[in-house]
């Protein structure tokens, strides 16, 4: 006979914590990425905007990567999904959180722009930091050229992320620096062709607060990065870099290394989907105590008058 004990699952709360970390990290990236582009003064600020964004990615991954893996980019999340490193429900939560975080970051910068006395049209100011093609590109790059750059850049970024965080990579502790430097060099290329961000969440955040043309062209900055991410994910799936099978009965804590595939993308699989059923043996009925009869002491019995 067994007794059933229900142990509550922490899957939902853990996913919420990871999604919150993604939202906060994306907010950080958008605030710096858009803010520096909008307010930069090359004579007063020697640091390029692309390098500032790359350093922000490194800082965000170091700060929040141990919680969520530090994607902060829907393209990177799609790459993990295609590579088999995370489940669809987790990926959807990540992308939703990244969009929310990006919008909040852009809203904060938009509020700052509105306070500047000399600016009469805040949306026009945002146009200078928003991704675009054709007449809205710095070098008038057509849609085909921008699409190719976005696909290639997203594939390279996702490839670096997946490779730097792979379980078999002995140097994965340096993943934030590898990813941050990759973002910096890619943004240097992207900004010269049309403020390309290789990040759909950031592209969406800036487009919402820009002129109407930005929303009309936004589709490209989702389709192209997702295609590039899928290509990189398929390549790494071929390498066999998927998360290990999890044991459903055991709930493991998140390890210190936030870029292990199990913690980055499949940590929740180790926890049961619902309340765990733990079987424990029923307690055996208590045995009736038997009163032990002490051995007689002939000398004491004699003095007590019990023995003649």
What features would you describe in this structure?
By secondary structure, the protein is mostly helical. It contains twelve helices and two strands; from the N terminus they run E-H-H-H-H-H-H-H-H-H-H-H-E-H. The protein has a two-stranded antiparallel sheet with strand order 1-2. Helix 3 packs antiparallel against helix 4. The longest helix is centred in the first third of the chain and has 29 residues. The radius of gyration is 30 Å and the shape is globular.
Layout of helices and strands, plus pairs?
Layout: E1 2-7, H1 11-39, H2 49-68, H3 74-83, H4 88-115, H5 122-127, H6 143-164, H7 175-193, H8 200-208, H9 212-216, H10 220-238, H11 261-264, E2 276-281, H12 298-303
Antiparallel strand pairs: 1-2
Helix pairs in contact: 1-2, 1-4, 1-8, 2-7, 3-4, 3-6, 3-10, 4-8, 6-7, 6-10
The residue fraction in helices comes out at 55-70%
Number of helices: 12
Distance between the termini: 57 Å
- List segments where confidence is low: pLDDT < 50 over at least 5 consecutive residues: 1-8, 244-257, 261-281, 298-308
Shape descriptor reads globular
SSE run? EHHHHHHHHHHHEH
Please state roughly what percent of the residues sit in beta strands, choosing from under 5%, 5-15%, 15-25%, 25-35%, 35-45% or over 45%: under 5%
Overall mean pLDDT score? 81
Radius of gyration: 30 Å
Query: How many strand elements?
Result: 2
Largest sheet: 2 strands, antiparallel
> What structural class do the secondary elements suggest?
mainly alpha
Strand order of the largest sheet: 1-2
């Amino acid at each position: 006979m067994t007794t059933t004990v229900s142990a509550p699952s922490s899957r939902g709360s853990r996913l919420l914590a990871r999604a919150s970390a993604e939202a906060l990290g994306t907010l950080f990236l958008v605030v710096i990425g858009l803010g520096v582009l909008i307010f930069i003064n090359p004579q007063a600020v020697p640091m390029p905007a692309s390098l500032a964004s790359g350093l922000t990615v490194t800082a965000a991954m170091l700060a929040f990567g141990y919680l969520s893996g530090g994607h902060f980019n829907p393209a990177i999340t799609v790459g993990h999904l295609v590579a088999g490193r995370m489940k669809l429900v987790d990926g959807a939560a990540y992308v939703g959180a990244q969009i929310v975080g990006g919008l909040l970051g852009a809203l904060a910068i938009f509020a700052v722009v509105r306070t500047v006395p000399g600016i009469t049209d805040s949306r026009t100011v945002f146009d200078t930091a928003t991704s675009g093609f054709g007449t809205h590109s710095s070098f008038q790059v057509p849609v085909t050229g921008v699409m190719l750059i976005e696909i290639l850049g997203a594939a390279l970024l996702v490839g670096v992320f997946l490779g730097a965080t792979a379980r078999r990579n002995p140097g994965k502790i340096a993943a934030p620096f590898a990813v941050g430097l990759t973002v910096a060099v890619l943004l240097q290329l992207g900004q010269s062709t049309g403020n390309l961000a290789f990040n759909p969440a950031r592209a969406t955040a800036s487009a919402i607060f820009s002129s109407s043309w930005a929303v009309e062209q936004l589709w490209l900055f989702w389709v192209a990065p997702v295609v590039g991410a899928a290509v990189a994910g398929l390549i790494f799936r071929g390498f066999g870099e998927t998360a290990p099978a999890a044991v459903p009965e055991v709930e493991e804590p998140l390890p210190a290394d936030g870029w292990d595939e199990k913690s980055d993308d499949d940590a929740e699989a180790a926890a049961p989907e619902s309340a765990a059923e733990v079987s424990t043996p029923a307690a055996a009925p208590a045995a009736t105590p038997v009163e032990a009869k002490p051995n007689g002491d002939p000398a004491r019995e004699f003095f007590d008058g019990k023995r003649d």
